[in-house]
Amino acid sequence: MKKTNNATSEFLSQLPKNIFSGFVVSLIALPLGLGLALASEAPPISGVIASVVGGIIVSIFGGSKVTITGPGNGLVVVLLGAITTLANGDLYQGYIFTLAAIICSGALMIIIGQLRLGILSDFFPSSAIQGMLAAIGISIFAKQFHVMLANTSIKGDTISLLTDIPHSISLLFKPEYSAIAIAALVGVLSLLIMFFYGKIRNKYFQLVPAPMWIVLIAVGLSYYYEFFSSAPYPIDDSLLVQIPNDVFSNFPTPDFSLILDFKFIGVVIAITLISSIESLLSIKAVDKLDPLKRRSNINKDLTALGIASIVSGFIGGLNVVTVIARSSVNVNNGGTNRSSNFFHSVFLILFVVLFQDQLKRIPLTALAAILVYTGYKLAAPRNLKIVAKIGKEQLIIFFATIIATITTNLITGILIGILTTIIIHFILNKSVLFFIRNLFKPNVLMFKEGFNDTYFVSVKSFSSFLNYSRLKRKLDTIPENQDTIIDFSLCDFVDYTVQESLLGYQETFKRKGGSFEITGLDIHGTSSEHPLAIRSLIPFSKKIKIGAKSNLTKRQKDLQNIANDFSWQYAPKKGHDVSGLHDFVFFKTKKINYLNNSIYDSKSIFRISDTEFSEGEFIARTLVRTTIMTIKLKTEVPKFTLDKEGLLEFIYKFSGFKDILISGHPDFSKRFFLLGEKPKKIKLFFTDELVLFLESNPYYHIECNGNSLLVMRKERLASIKEIKALLDYGTRLEKVITSIQYDELLLKSPKIKS
């Protein structure tokens, strides 16, 4: 009961912030809703209806906290195609057919959410999704650029619309088209506002979003001509927003007569696919912005979006998706829970009821300018540069998806993108059988280490968008305030989509007080110098010449930073001089392949390295990668091995070794297994100070070969956090050992000396 009261009081205390945030979001949602509907050839009010219905229903049934819902940019192309083709050019009939498709799509969204199929979004390659979004942006830009210039009659596919842009510009300079010049000028000025809004650093100016400034200026221009000018308003009624007077009493009736038609079914699938992808991408992005670090229930959200789309479709609205731009505005303006989404809907209703006359004064060219800017952002040249830096193969996937989407449709486009990605992966690995053989095999092993509660996840074979869901299922079970290590040492191939997705986990774990570290990628070759480039162990990657430090992994960069902090050296390359390690008992029966990622001081007293070694032979041969620390001692000391009591004790006793007990320290002898060839010298060396140090610090496996120490913890690669702890432990251990006057102790013990 107390918990419920606290939640209620917290909700009420945050209500003013959420009301204000909802108001600010509604200022953006209103012009965008009108514009997206117009871009889809639907009645302008249908976009506002989608925002209103989505805000109310998703705020009640949704699984996210700070997301905003409404019509989405990504669906403009699908809805436009549906409205213009389902009824063979009859736009109103096409619109009511599309409403039926939206309702059917909503039902599919509910099924997807209830069956917990939100994970299907992980089966889309990142570059293909980016290509699809860029294609949507190009299509929006191509259509709306003409509308922005007051040429609303032009028709055609995306390519023809792009090639006709110079023609629409030239029309403005012909005398017979002077009537549309003012409307076009409003469109161009609106576009300039969108581009330069962010460069105006006035805090009061920034209180009003750019789209609302456009609406205010356009409506203000209308009132200027009405009250202060004798000249008639220069923008024709056909270029103004048309809103019926009886918005809430005369809803259109969806037409389901095409429900079994293949073209209709294709539209339903396309709407569902794009709605799901756009919503899931937005939800993931907004979760990263949430100041309270909460994670959304995506399947619950998909169900709520499905319900909202059904209701919206029945009353004439577009389908409802989660939208990133409006959600980020919500977070930036203090939105903390779902009530901000609800209040944004309330304010939209008030705008439509109270300001219908003002809405009818908004020029279509001004709304089109907002969409031209939206299309440009989706397909901006900088996106191409980002993809190109990741790798040439990503550029191929990106362009293949764009071309296929523009020349065919969105479903074919994304399928072509997936197929292109698979073919490229086959080519890069020079093997089709490798993927087929391992695709359905379990490739993820996860366990929690008992000694430090770290979650260790090992991935083998390959990890790509095709099987990433297995890894994701494991990762989603790990509390985000825990330490986690993902190791790819046994993985032959890791694609860009997986690495990009893991970045999201790193950010989430860091925000919530945990750590999420990736190891094992530094031994792979890369397809480019980008840190997220495809990584592979096959010869293809090894032929690519990459600078020594140009494409270091995040772990390697962190190692470099540690070395810099201590004024040490860092060597990422493999070194094969491992002769000194064979003097340690641990490595006597192992074949050491190489050392890499070494950090060491100028005198080479301390050295921390990753090492790869093999155990066994033939079919029993296994490769192991682990992190070790070696410390050169200033004086010779007894040879010994110190380990934790347990299985190792049994093995050593079975081999004839006896545990050396340190007198006066029974707890130490119970916790540790100490052995060596000269027990008396070892007992003398293990002073009270050394024993106290070992008892009061975390356990490490320690060996001494007389001149050097080997310190390690687990037979796996250490995380950065563990390396820092190892470095601290090793430097303090060296000080304790240096302070031991072993030679003097030896001289004072004549029995040992003799």
Secondary structure: elements and pairs:
Blueprint: H1 2-39, H2 45-61, E1 68-70, H3 76-85, H4 91-114, H5 126-148, H6 158-163, H7 165-171, H8 181-196, H9 210-227, H10 262-289, H11 298-314, E2 321-323, H12 324-332, H13 339-354, H14 356-359, H15 364-378, H16 381-390, H17 392-407, H18 410-429, H19 433-438, E3 444-448, E4 455-463, H20 468-475, E5 483-494, H21 496-511, E6 515-519, E7 525-526, E8 535-536, H22 539-542, H23 554-565, E9 569-571, E10 591-600, E11 606-615, E12 622-632, E13 640-644, H24 647-654, H25 666-671, E14 672-675, H26 679-685, H27 688-695, E15 701-704, E16 708-712, H28 720-739, H29 742-747, H30 750-753
Parallel strand pairs: 4-5, 5-6
Antiparallel strand pairs: 1-2, 3-4, 5-8, 7-8, 9-10, 10-11, 11-12, 12-16, 13-14, 13-15, 15-16
Helix pairs in contact: 1-2, 1-9, 1-12, 1-13, 1-15, 2-11, 2-13, 3-4, 4-10, 4-11, 5-15, 5-17, 5-18, 8-9, 8-15, 10-12, 16-17, 17-18
Written overview of the protein:
This protein is α+β, with helices and mostly antiparallel strands and 754 residues long. The chain has three domains: 2-379, no CATH class; 437-550, Transcription Regulator spoIIAA (2-Layer Sandwich), CATH 3.30.750.24; 569-752, no CATH class. Helices cover 53% and strands 12% of the residues. The protein is built from 30 helices and 16 strands. It has an eight-stranded antiparallel beta sheet. It starts with a helix and ends with a helix. Residues 540-549 have low confidence and may be disordered.
Give the key terms.
single chain, 754 residues, alpha+beta, 3 domains, 30 helices, 53% helix, 12% strand, elongated
